[in-house]
Design a protein that fits this description.
The complex is a heterotrimer of chains A (292), B (333) and C (241).
Chain A lengths: L4 H31 L7 H17 L9 H20 L7 H23 L14 E4 L2 E4 H23 L1 H11 L1 H6 L4 H23 L9 H16 L4 H21 L5 H15 L11
Antiparallel strand pairs in A: 1-2
Chain B lengths: L6 H19 L2 H26 L8 H18 L3 H25 L4 H20 L10 E2 L15 H23 L2 H11 L1 H6 L4 H27 L1 E2 L1 H5 L1 H14 L6 H20 L6 H16 L3 H6 L20
Antiparallel strand pairs in B: 1-2
Chain C lengths: L3 E10 L2 E11 L4 E5 L6 H8 L7 E6 L2 E2 L5 H7 L1 E3 L12 H9 L6 H14 L15 H14 L4 E5 L7 H16 L3 E5 L3 H7 L2 E6 L2 E6 L1 H5 L2 H6 L9
Parallel strand pairs in C: 3-8, 3-9, 6-7, 7-8
Antiparallel strand pairs in C: 1-2, 1-4, 4-5, 9-10
Helix pairs in contact in C: 3-4, 3-5, 4-5
Classes of the chains: A mainly alpha (292), B mainly alpha (333), C alpha/beta (241).
Chain lengths: 292, 333, 241
């Protein structure tokens, strides 16, 4: 265990930046699971799809990675809507276990389809931004990560405003708190959930485009991020957006600091440890979201 | 009617006898396939005690598989302890782990999707811990030292040796499940699954029941893990603690029929050969063929036959559930 | 010595006080009624007594033994069983199996439990439905099943939570007859009810709750003339027949 303040400071910076991305990935899930109580174990695979789209646009089409948002977001929105309509909606009336198993199956399908089509290759792409860094004292801030952090923040704010200030957003919140009451008030609950699922998935499009400049794309990339998303949502308090943001940062820091201090890949164990402890002793999350 | 003539005893007995004769007539490949079917049938049956009967769906059962596999293999490779003994030590260790997991989760009311997530997290954590533990092989895993035909060390030159072992294990697991289902323990498991508050109000110690299921399921799975290690002669963090074994064993139980005696075995019987065929057919170019198949089957079954194949055969209908069932604490009257 | 002794029982849920300094006792062989307007705290009292939620303060003593912080299954094993307002059958088990769960408290062996369960099914007139799955019953049958499950635990004190709700006049008579018979056989009852006919005809003593506090106690005649009780029920006059 090599301890040096520079290393630690670097870890804090990197951790915060990646934490922003975790937060964005989790925010979409907060909407889907925390608010609508729909369990989508394929959430990470949606991200993976977004990353492949962004990757090919950049690698083959030479797009500016950040412009790919205009493709990934609508694509994932559409994809989310289709998946919801075809396979998730019918399952909603059954116990939660069925949703878990169904989306687990979906995640297997998506992962392995990607494996067939794209092979197991780990794909990275060099962009003008990829190597840029900004020195901050003794610490290096990598530009792509910083942009991702900023972009995540913007996206989260936009989403929050949408939910708080627009009619559709309010409808989503109402429908998820009390489906029957919402229906009685004239809210088309089915359509609302459909939109919400699409939006939650679209968030991943933003995350994907932001990540491609510095993170690799592969069929299994969704496994880790998907699990992290669930961890973050629980830690932040189900349905609590601010909580998801803070929790994302906490997990990002845990991962980075853990990686700096602990040997090998043990940092991940720390993350899971925090998750389990949170579930055991503070299931309502840091800020106390809606009760389970 | 004497016990032996009852159809529920007679038919399985005949089946068992036929299966005993299999190695005499089948090719080495068929025997291999049968070993796989039986092994997954065994593991799914073990999972079913916690997941099917008690209704606590563990998505990280590979944790126990790995504990069993690593314990017996480590003891064998490092200290020459025969797996015949090592497997029981693995089972005990897994039982302890199962107790901890059960106590932690159930004592603090972690259930449903949260329980599933915790089990996933624990299994994943195990992957990382073993990958970093060089004394048990680290990321490279452990190889079961091959010493030739040594039945005393659970090593056989031909597949039929392994076949007989797993056949007996599976038969015993099924018999155990059947036996439990007819005793108070089995009733309590189902009561806890169907309506925990009602069970508690009727004198069932729901916490203890769930923990018992966890311990039993864990220990049985670990025994299977030891067999797994002996048969494949290689174990590594990902292939015993990973997502794939977890998903496989619960998949077979679900497809076949949760909470039934024969469901998991049926599920394995149907899916394993198909998966192996898929793997053989597409194998070289695509190693994930069987997983794609499993995923598709899972989606299709959840959509169209939520109660599994046995549910199709029987009169069981899945009752649509209102998302938030009235729980005791909700009644603030 | 009374069979059940509630002393200064209080329960807060955050800012809301659901049960407020409640005390009463129940003697062996009694049928005590617990009434009050909606939201008065009646079911919370049941949940507290049967161990489903812990009290904020106060004690519950059953048969001389403190049961205040025991878990529901322990309290049931001691002889105090409750039913649920919203019936809670085991949907995929047969009626017989449903009742067997209760029977297992006193009879460890499946064969004995089954015998006991069949006996109970006869008592609650459900023996012809022994093989029917729990989810296929009518409301009256579900209510009978609820009582049957509780009976199988061989309770000394049975807490009935709005057992008559949703039943028609004839069905209510049915249930009344059953409760009277069971009481004659020695089971003590604590009954929460909205259907006044049940309370008035079964209970020799009634406790009235409002906002978690006891506002009246006495015979049915006495209570139905009590000023405080009438005020609490103002607007719900149709309940006081």
């Amino acid at each position: 265990m090599i301890f040096s303040t520079t290393l630690l400071a670097q870890a804090l910076v990197s951790g915060t930046l990646i934490g922003g991305v975790f937060a964005l990935i989790a925010v979409g899930l907060t909407l889907i699971w925390g608010v609508m109580r729909i369990i989508n174990f394929a959430h990470g695979e949606f991200l993976m799809i977004g990353m492949y789209i962004a990757y090919f646009l950049v690698a083959t089409g030479h797009w500016n990675p950040y412009l790919t948002i205009f493709v990934t977001v609508p694509a994932l929105f559409l994809f989310g809507v289709v998946i919801f309509r075809t396979i998730i909606h019918p399952i909603l009336k059954y116990p939660a276990m069925n949703q878990i198993m169904l989306t687990l199956g979906l995640s297997l399908i998506l992962q392995n389809l990607a494996l067939v089509i794209f092979k197991a290759d780990v794909l990275t792409v060099q962009t003008p931004y990829s190597r840029l860094t900004i020195p901050l004292g003794e610490v290096i801030v990598r530009v792509p990560q910083a942009i991702a952090f900023a972009g995540s923040g913007v996206a989260a704010v936009v989403l929050w405003l949408f939910l708080q200030r627009t009619d559709t957003g309010r409808a989503i919140r109402a429908a998820s708190q009390n489906r029957d009451a919402a229906m009685l008030m004239g809210i088309d609950v089915e359509r609302t959930f459909l939109l919400a699922f699409g939006i939650g998935s679209a968030c991943l499009g933003v995350a994907a485009s932001l990540m491609v400049p510095f993170y690799y794309t592969s069929p299994t990339v969704g496994l880790f991020f998907g699990l992290i998303a669930f961890v973050v949502v629980v830690l932040g308090g189900m349905g609590n957006f601010l909580g998801a943001l803070v929790a994302g940062l906490i997990i990002g820091l845990t991962e980075a600091v853990g990686a700096a201090l602990l040997p090998g890949t043990l940092a991940r164990v720390l993350t899971f440890g925090i998750f389990t402890l949170a579930l055991l002793f503070r299931p309502q999350g840091i800020f106390g979201g809606r009760q389970q | 009617m004497s016990t032996l003539r009852k159809p529920s005893v007679f038919v399985p007995a005949v089946l068992f006898a036929l299966l005993l004769a299999l190695p005499g007539v089948a090719s080495e490949y068929v025997i291999h396939l049968s070993v796989l079917v039986l092994m997954y049938a065994y593991l799914a049956t073990a999972w079913n005690i916690l997941g099917g009967y008690a209704g606590q769906h563990s998505l990280g059962h590979s944790l126990f598989l790995g504990v069993g596999a690593y314990t017996s293999t480590f003891l064998f490779v490092q200290m020459g302890v025969t797996p015949w003994l090592g497997m029981w030590l693995g089972a005990i260790l897994a039982g302890v782990v199962g107790w901890f997991v059960g106590y932690l989760c159930f004592r603090y009311g972690i259930k449903g999707p949260y329980f599933a997530l915790v089990t996933i997290a624990l299994a994943e954590a195990a992957v990382y811990i073993t990958s970093n533990a060089s004394f048990i092989g680290g990321a490279r895993g452990l190889e079961v030292t091959w010493l030739g035909s040594r039945p005393d060390l659970m090593q056989f030159n031909s597949k039929s040796g392994y076949y007989y072992i797993i056949l007996v294990m599976t038969a015993l697991a099924i018999i155990l499940t059947k036996w439990c289902s007819q005793r108070g323990f089995g009733f309590r498991l189902v009561a806890v699954r169907e309506n925990e508050d009602a069970a508690e109000a009727l004198g069932v110690n729901t916490l203890r029941t769930k923990i018992q299921a966890s311990v039993l399921s864990a220990a049985l799975t670990a025994l299977g893990g030891s067999f797994f290690a002996q048969y494949f002669t290689y174990i590594g963090p990902k292939n015993v603690f990973g997502e794939v074994p977890s998903v496989q064993i619960l998949l077979f139980a679900i497809i076949g029929g949760l909470g039934t005696v024969w469901g998991p075995a049926l599920g394995a019987l149907i899916l394993v050969p198909v998966a192996e065929l898929a793997r053989g057919w597409l194998g070289g170019s695509f190693s994930g063929a069987h997983l794609l198949l499993y995923g598709t089957v899972l989606v299709v079954v959840m959509l169209f036959m939520p109660k599994g194949i046995i549910g199709l055969l029987g009169r069981i209908r899945l009752r649509p559930v209102r998302r938030r069932q009235a729980r005791v604490e909700d009644d603030v009257t | 010595m009374s069979l059940l002794e509630i002393s200064r029982l209080t329960k807060h849920f955050g800012g809301l006080t659901a049960v407020n300094d409640l005390s009463f006792s129940l003697d062996q062989g009694e049928i005590l009624g617990l009434i009050g307007p909606n939201g008065a705290g009646k079911t919370t009292v049941f949940n507290l007594v049967s161990g489903f939620i812990p009290p904020s303060s106060g004690t519950v003593t059953f048969d001389g033994r403190s049961v205040t912080n025991l878990r529901p299954h322990q309290i049931c094993q001691l002889g105090l069983t409750r039913t649920f307002q919203v019936v809670q059958p085991f949907p995929d088990m047969t009626v017989l199996e449903n009742v067997m769960i209760g029977a297992f408290v006193r009879h460890g062996r499946p064969a004995e439990a089954e015998n006991k369960a069949r006996e109970v099914l006869k008592r609650v007139a459900l023996d012809h439905k022994a093989a029917t799955p729990g989810r296929s019953l009518t409301l009256l049958e579900l209510k009978r099943l609820e009582i049957g499950k509780a009976l199988a635990t061989e309770p000394r004190l049975l807490l009935l939570d709005e057992v008559a709700s949703g039943l028609n006049m004839v069905e209510v008579e049915d249930v009344l007859a059953l409760v009277r018979q069971l009481n004659r056989e020695g089971i003590t009852f604590l009954i929460v009810e909205h259907v006044m006919k049940v309370i008035m005809s079964l209970c020799r003593r009634i406790i009235v709750l409002d906002f978690g506090k006891k506002i009246g106690e006495g015979t049915p005649q006495h209570v139905s003339r009590d000023q405080a009780v009438l005020e609490a029920y103002l607007g719900e006059e149709e309940y006081l027949a």
